[in-house]
Amino acid sequence: MTTKDPEMAPGTGRQYARTLETGDRYIATDLDNKRHEVTVSTITEHLDDSNSVRHQYADPVDHAHFTYSAVVHITYRAPRCPHG
Questions:
Q1: pLDDT at site 9
Q2: Percentages (nearest 5) of helix, strand, coil residues in the chain
Q3: Can you give the pTM of this predicted structure?
Q4: Is-contact 53 20, C-beta < 8 A?
Q5: Are the C-beta atoms of 36 and 56 separated by less than 8 Å?
Q6: Residue 78 in contact with residue 56, Cβ under 8 Å?
Q7: How far is the C-alpha of 49 from the C-alpha of 23, rounded, in Å?
Q8: Burial (0-12, 13-18, 19+ Cβ within 10 Å), 76
Q9: For residue range 15-71, what is the model confidence (pLDDT) as tens digits?
Q10: What is the DSSP letter of 4?
Q11: Using alpha carbons only, what angle is made at residue 47 by residues 44 and 48, rounded to the nearest 5 degrees?
Q12: d(Cα 77, Cα 21) in Å, to the nearest integer?
């Protein structure tokens, strides 16, 4: 993973959705505008620089779609491999 904006380097709190990786937890909103903490299961990147994020099966929100500049509130970062 490469950081594209040094002002929002991978961490917790408000971060770009494009920095999400498998195992990260963040706050998602369901169709009734209720907030839930969810865990990223898979990410699909699209040619228009957007991405689709699937959440773990047990999470109350199934998936989300983010534009390149979307910001989310990340509560936990999964450990990253030091070798990239």
A1: 60
A2: 5, 40, 50
A3: 0.82
A4: yes
A5: no
A6: no
A7: 21
A8: exposed
A9: 999 999 999 999 999 989 999 999 999 999 999 999 999 999 999 999 999 999 999
A10: S
A11: 105
A12: 8
Look-up of token digits 């228009």: 48
What is the spatial distance between Cα 14 and Cα 61, in angstroms, rounded to a whole number?
19
Q: How far apart are CA 3 and CA 73, in angstroms?
A: 17
Token pair 């699909």 is at which residue? 44
Instruction: Report residue 43 as tokens.
Output: 């990410």
Strand ranges inside the chain, DSSP E: 13-16, 25-29, 35-45, 51-55, 63-66, 71-76
